[in-house]
Design a protein that fits this description.
single chain, alpha/beta, D-Maltodextrin-Binding Protein, domain 2, 2 domains, 5-stranded mixed β-sheet, 11 helices
């Protein structure tokens, strides 16, 4: 660490891409990171409600919603610490009669939080790929306003969408086990201050998509989109005081990314596992499916922004330029 560097607190989830930063192997020039490892559900709640950290991961959807309502406390940096084909994580009870996405219509489906990015991606795919609209499903939401992202962004159920609040006395996992829900758009049972479910549901539930890799490959081949869930943000007052910080943070994360991807064999294996390469040929779709930077991911950011608006969570379409630090536009 440099004695002359700025000390920035940073909140990160513990995953392969963030670990080199958490463990201090890469620091931005002129900055000493002081990391706190936090589950994303809790991290976003704490940052949106209390703005505890100088730099943190942030839910793309919650950032879009906040900015649309005039909350500009945070400036995004095009570093994407979580990406996944979220619709392949939809779980359904084995006895629910749900065998295809169309079978979700009229069913009781749990969701930790209606506005979370993974849920928005999944509903966008269900609507545009399979003709299942959010209005077709009976939603049951686990998080309450006092410990939810929507509690800080003024969440209200979109017009025409049925959302029931799950009582504090139960949770998605328990309701799935009892047959009170037919499935879950996303099931989170890792311990944190926000999510309440803890049950193992594997005995009564199965994935909606029997072969998630095949469905991921199909979706990516057709659309060229690898959904982004989290981006990094820096507090706006720090960004305005130190406008160089965003680019320096970006370069530190790029070094961490290069470290993680140094093993070509491991990278290829990881890409096969999530449907980003053709399993038989081992041919990668695109130069870097997990790229950072705004230029290569503009279509993905524009798509999630359009889904947030289309699903009635913002009153206007938010542009990428409203989110990201200007110095990163050409990265």
């Amino acid at each position: 660490m440099s004695a002359h560097a700025l000390d920035f607190s940073i909140a990160l989830s513990n995953n392969e891409r963030t670990r080199p930063i958490i463990e201090g192997r890469h620091q931005p020039q002129g900055i000493n990171f002081m990391p706190t490892v936090v589950h994303p559900s809790e991290m976003f709640w704490r940052q949106l409600k209390f703005a505890e950290f100088d730099v943190s991961e942030m839910s793309i959807s919650s950032l879009l919603i906040a900015v649309s309502k005039g909350d500009t406390r945070f400036v995004a940096i095009p570093i994407y610490t979580a990406r996944m084909f979220f619709h392949t994580r939809i779980m359904v009870r084995r006895d629910s009669g749900i065998n295809t996405p169309a079978d979700l219509k009229g069913k009781r489906i749990g969701v930790p939080e209606y506005q979370q990015t993974s849920a928005i991606w999944s509903r966008g795919v269900l609507q545009h790929e399979f003709g299942v609209h959010a209005r077709d499903i009976k939603w049951h939401m686990e998080r309450h306003p006092d410990k939810s992202h929507g509690g800080s962004t003024g969440f209200k159920a979109p017009e025409g969408v049925s959302i029931e609040q799950i009582p504090m006395s139960t949770n998605i996992g328990e309701m799935l086990l009892k047959g009170e829900l037919d499935g879950a758009l996303l099931y989170l049972n890792e311990p944190n201050l926000v999510d309440r479910s803890t049950a193992d549901i594997s005995g009564v539930c199965r994935p909606l998509f029997a072969d998630p890799v095949a469905e991921s490959t199909r979706y990516f081949t057709k659309n060229g989109i690898y959904p982004i869930n989290h981006a990094m943000v820096i507090k706006r007052d720090l960004h305005e005081k130190y406008p160089w910080a965003a680019v320096n943070i970006y370069h530190a994360f790029m070094k961490a990314k290069a470290e993680v991807e140094a093993s070509a064999e491991k990278t290829l294996r990881d890409y096969v596992a999530c449907g980003l390469v053709e399993p038989k040929a081992g041919k990668m779709f695109g130069a870097d499916p997990k790229s950072y930077g705004l230029r290569s991911t503009r279509n993905v950011i524009d798509t999630i922004a359009s889904y947030v608006y289309e699903q009635g969570l913002t009153e206007r379409l938010v542009k990428a330029e409203e989110l990201f630090a200007p110095a990163t536009f050409d990265l």
